[in-house]
Structures are given as C-alpha cells and as structure tokens.
Amino acid sequence: MMKTNLKDITGYILAGGKSSRMGTDKGLLLFEGKPMIQYVIEQMQPIFSKVVIVSNNPEYEKFGFEVIPDLIKDSGPAGGIYTALNHSDTKLNFMVSCDMPFVTAAAIEFVIKNSEESQIVLLENKARIEPLFGIYAKDCEPIWLELMEQKVIKLQEMVLRFQLKTIPVENNEIFATSFFKNINTKEDLNNALNRI
C-alpha cells in the first residue's frame, strides 16, 4: 500500500456551471441554511493544505479559495476534471462534486488510505463507479484531453481508460445510504432535506 503524503494532494471541488434543472448553481443552493458547497469545503479544508474550486462563476470567490474557470467551455464534469488536472502541481488530486452535502472527512481519508499506485482511485457502490469523488493523478491529463477531443466525455467510460482502482463500499459504515446522493433537481433537494 502506498503511504500518501497529504501535502502531495490538492483538493478540487467541481462546481461546474448553472444547473438547467435547478435554475442556479447547485453549489450555491441552500441546504439546511448553508450553501451546499460549504459542506464539502468544511470536510476538505482540515485534510488538504490546498483546496481549489473549479467554476466559471466568480461568486464562489466569497468562500476564500482560489477559483479557476473551465478551460474547455460547456464540457461538463469531464471538463472540470481536465481543468483541475491542468492546474495542478501535485502528483495526486482529490476531486469532489459540489453537490454532495453528505461528504465526510472520514470518507475522504478512507479513499486516501486505501489508494495504491493507480492513476485513478474511486469508490464503487452497488456495482456503480462514482467518478466525482476520488483521486486522479496529474499524469492522467494528456490522455484525458485526448479522450475529450475524441468526444468521449462520459465519465464512467473515461475512467476505464486508465489504471483504475475501485474500492467497494457496500456495507461500509463510513458510507451512509445518503452519502452518494447528488442533488440534481429541486425534488432531490426536498427529499434530502426530508431525510435529515
């Protein structure tokens, strides 16, 4: 098992653009009185010495972190990951979507602790790979760009082109049933609030 030095990992929050289904930036939507991205920040900040937000919206600067715009316009989460990899000066990078308010520091540390010499380390939940929560090596950047230029932008397909490690997490007490719930619609938001 690789002993990972946290100084060698940058934390990136993928805040994307305006959600057509929500009518606003998902990360700025209030969840229990706080913007959703704030929950992610609070869990990442104690772990990583450097946290960066990938977004075209300068409003995210109010959270006090560097905000970098997408290098490839309208390219979705794949473009956000590419932008982060291009920006990074660390060997490893931890990517998290801004719309995962149930993320915990314990879950982030679990992935880091279980990472090995792989280019990408992701969680697998009920046979589904979760590409928006995990480690991406800096050296993925050139092939990632090639895939995007070939119009391969479905994350589930892209990650399979790399040296990938998946960590099964079913029945793992660190991951509550709500952990993987992304908030994509107003109905999702209401359902999540009702579960609290």
UniProtKB/TrEMBL annotation:
Q: Set out the biological process GO terms recorded for this chain's protein.
A: Mo-molybdopterin cofactor biosynthetic process
UniProt entry keywords in alphabetical sequence:
Cytoplasm, GTP-binding, Magnesium, Metal-binding, Molybdenum cofactor biosynthesis, Nucleotide-binding, Nucleotidyltransferase, Transferase
InterPro entries listed in its UniProt record: MobA-like_NTP_Trfase, Molybde_CF_guanTrfase, Nucleotide-diphossugar_trans
Enzyme Commission number(s) of this protein: 2.7.7.77
Q: Where does the protein end up?
A: Cytoplasm
Q: Which reaction does it catalyse?
A: Mo-molybdopterin + GTP + H(+) = Mo-molybdopterin guanine dinucleotide + diphosphate
- Residues holding Mg(2+): 99
Is this entry keyworded Cytoplasm?
yes
Carries keyword Membrane?
no
Where do the annotations place GTP binding?
14-16, 26, 70, 99
Molecular function (GO) terms for this protein are: GTP binding; metal ion binding; molybdenum cofactor guanylyltransferase activity
**CDD domains given in the database record:** MobA
Q: Which Pfam families match?
A: NTP_transf_3 (PF12804)
* GO cellular-component term (any): cytoplasm
Domain named MobA-like NTP transferase: residues: 11-151
Tell me its cofactors. Answer: Mg(2+)
Q: What does the entry's domain section say?
A: The N-terminal domain determines nucleotide recognition and specific binding, while the C-terminal domain determines the specific binding to the target protein.
Give the UniProt family note: Belongs to the MobA family.
The task this protein performs is described as: Transfers a GMP moiety from GTP to Mo-molybdopterin (Mo-MPT) cofactor (Moco or molybdenum cofactor) to form Mo-molybdopterin guanine dinucleotide (Mo-MGD) cofactor.
The protein's name in its UniProt record: Probable molybdenum cofactor guanylyltransferase
Specify the species: Flavobacterium nackdongense
Q: What is the lineage of its organism?
A: Bacteria, Pseudomonadati, Bacteroidota, Flavobacteriia, Flavobacteriales
Please state the gene responsible for encoding this protein: mobA
